[in-house]
Design brief:
The protein is about 30% helix and about 35% strand. It is an alpha+beta fold. The longest helix is centred in the C-terminal third of the chain and has 23 residues. The chain has a seven-stranded antiparallel β-sheet, sandwiched between helices.
């Protein structure tokens, strides 16, 4: 783990690769690809708590097949997460830093932004919400654009890859929440 800590330390104060830090909380900025996903997870306090715990502990990422290391066990402001994404024999490291976190009895979530070396520049926000009718929904909001030579060269393939990963996040939450009895 000491080696991982050394690797992560270089990103603790690194600048974000985009200027609109925190923009997933409001109108998404122009000049980026925008993604908004909303998915039902079930209903009740138990489902909400389970989804919030999976989301904030990085477990959603792990269960979606993402190999990652983080400076913190949970998403907290300033936490750095290094995601190692494999495509066949090629491994791409994608570093992000958490820009915002929140948890109330009805809502939980966080947003992180890309750091140097990430294949894209932008931000992703992940949330779960317990609605007045007890339904629990997950939301993912993102804006991004290619930031490395291979993502610029790949064109729409980068969009397809991002969509695939985001769908895997939702599937991971759904699978775990389906096993949780509604309360």
């Amino acid at each position: 783990m000491a080696h991982a800590d050394q690797i992560l330390d270089r990103w603790r104060t690194a600048p974000y690769t985009y200027v609109e830090v925190g923009a997933t909380a409001g109108p998404l900025p122009a000049g980026y690809r925008h993604v908004r996903i909303r998915a039902d997870l079930g209903s009740g306090a138990g489902t909400f708590d389970r989804a919030a715990d999976l989301l904030l502990s990085w477990e959603m990422h792990r269960r979606a097949g993402i190999d990652l290391v983080s400076t913190d066990r949970t998403a907290v402001p300033g936490a750095v997460v290094l995601q190692r994404i494999r495509v066949g024999p090629v491994r791409v490291d994608a570093a992000c830093r958490v820009v915002a976190v929140g948890r109330t009895p009805q809502r939980a979530g966080f947003a992180y932004g890309t750091l140097s070396g990430h294949p894209v520049a932008g931000e992703e926000a992940f949330g779960v919400e317990r609605l007045a009718d007890e339904r629990v929904v997950a939301t993912i909001t993102a804006f991004s654009r290619p930031d490395r030579w291979f993502t610029r060269l790949g064109g729409r393939l980068g969009d397809v890859a991002q969509d695939l990963v985001l769908r895997r996040y939702v599937a991971a939450l759904r699978a775990d929440c389906a096993a949780e009895p509604a309360t």
